[in-house]
Amino acid sequence: MTTVAFILVSWRPDVPAGMERAVAAHAAGLVAAGHKAVIVTADPTAPRSYRGATVAILSTLTGAFPCDDDTLRAAIHNSTDAIREQLVTIFARERVEAAVYVDSLWGLGSIMPAHQKVRNILAAHVVGHHTDLHTALALEPAAVIAPSATVLAQAAERGYHSADWTIVPNTLLADPAPQPQRVRDQLHQHGPIRVLARLGPEKGVAALLAPRNQLDRPIEVALASAPFEKATGSQDEVLRRCQALAAKAPGVTIRAGLNWDDVLPWLSAASIVIVPSHAETFGLVALEAMAAGTPVIAHDVGNLPDLIRDGGAIVPRSQGSAALWRASRQLLNDAVKYRRTSRAAYYRSRDYWPALVANQLLKVVS
């Protein structure tokens, strides 16, 4: 049995953000495979256990969430020694053998303590600010992992030697069962088109709602706020913009975000899921939709083309959001292609099932 700790100061269940969701799935996958996982968070509202993983609260980092990167960076700087000391204490208590610092800033990778008994791993879900990433790499982690080749390419473009980094993709929280074909056929005929996103401008939801979609079926959009934002009030601004656009578009409804356990069932009850993001280093919403057999329509950005492949349709971002609606209409109007795409989506998602990804992660951390 191997004990792996994941450090992410903003972690708590049901946070609508890729890193938090990825940590939950990695931890659950390791536990299911017979190993021990520890999640270290600074959020005092987090439970003390999650799907068999131990949750440890980091009390030495104080601050209020949501906050921007500069605020968090200053808080870490002011408490570096205390944070390191508490991490070492947690690792000793839980007998941690490998520590995955989930991001150079939010995952405390820039201050990871050096110790002989714990293997330090830096996770780069995104290529962070040079201030944090350069400092983290200078601490010489035993390995650097990223969820996709997109991150490796972006890091190389910015001058980092990412050829030595290892891809460990994100995974699902559970192994989904295939959806009965009769259910998928009914959804093809009458199911809503659904969009699930965090309230970030880069998620592209406002741009998606701007043009007329010309589809005679419900459009349902779930938007959620995260415990971080690029600038104070930016999430509220995106929400107001989306609500104003939806009010002018018949058949479009906006609802609050979903708990993690509710995401896959909600996406599975859609005819199509549109991922309108302008940037994605992995694409968890797309993966979860495909795991339910729901075709995904997305722009040709980041990791989405490689993730989705024949499990949906990829359109050039240069063609704007109207192209996403056009691709949706074309797929819904072709019953044979729709059925083929649905099946391809499900089987494509199996490459990311928890047991497979847990083994990939263990090869790096062991």
From TrEMBL:
The lineage of its organism: Bacteria, Bacillati, Actinomycetota, Actinomycetes, Micromonosporales. Pfam families: Glyco_trans_1_4 (PF13692). PANTHER family: SULFOQUINOVOSYL TRANSFERASE SQD2. This is Glycosyltransferase.
